[in-house]
Amino acid sequence: MHWKVCVVAILAFLVATEAERKLKSYQKIWGSRSNRALSCQANEFACKDNLLCIPNKWLCDIERDCYDGSDEQLNCPTDCSHANQFQCKNKECISRDFVCDGTRDCLDASDEVNCENFVCPEGEIKCDNFLCIEETWKCDGYNDCGDLWDERNCTASG
Ligand SMILES: [Ca+2]
Ligand SMILES: [Ca+2]
Ligand SMILES: [Ca+2]
């Protein structure tokens, strides 16, 4: 049953890509923070345990990013009304980051409909396949869109 192997491989790839996206952001944070006391930027949130600065857009996005989970506790609404949250058709809450990312996150897949009209959040650009990626991930040598769109038409320099 070759097609089954193929589907499993594609799913594994998509999950890995998503994990890599956040890992990349973590590396950016840690890379810029090594050997320095924790002082967060204006657009960052200091976790209550004082171990990590995370981008504000990771606040209340349903995913635990601080080790102590404080990014998901402080005044986060439970009705999906936060700007970083998205409400599926079936009322489930998911992270806004997972809307139109090519993976089904709502059980009813409502996060992957009307994606051609979806406006990416500020600071992000839209791939050919409607996936939103960080602006700075264009031409950075990583295949973030999954179809290499963000690594095409890059002028070679350095
Ligand atoms: Ca979070
Ligand atoms: Ca999704
Ligand atoms: Ca890239």
From TrEMBL:
**What is one term from the GO cellular component aspect held by the record?**
receptor complex
Query: Gene3D superfamilies given for it?
Result: Low-density Lipoprotein Receptor
Q: Does the keyword RNA-binding apply?
A: no
Q: Where in the cell is it found?
A: Membrane
Q: How does it sit in the membrane?
A: Single-pass membrane protein
Please verify whether the record's keywords include Signal.
yes
**Disulfide bridge partners, by residue number:** C88-C106, C100-C115, C120-C132, C127-C145, C139-C154
Known SMART domains for this protein? LDLa
**Pfam families membership:** Ldl_recept_a
Quick one: signal sequence residues? 1-19
Q: Keywords for this entry?
A: Disulfide bond, Glycoprotein, Membrane, Receptor, Repeat, Signal, Transmembrane, Transmembrane helix
Question: Do you know which PANTHER family this protein is assigned to?
Answer: LOW-DENSITY LIPOPROTEIN RECEPTOR-RELATED PROTEIN 2-RELATED (PTHR22722)
What family does the entry list?
Belongs to the LDLR family.
Q: What is this protein called?
A: Low-density lipoprotein receptor-like
Q: Which organism is it from?
A: Biomphalaria glabrata
Instruction: Show the taxonomic lineage.
Output: Eukaryota, Metazoa, Spiralia, Lophotrochozoa, Mollusca
List the gene name: LOC106058955
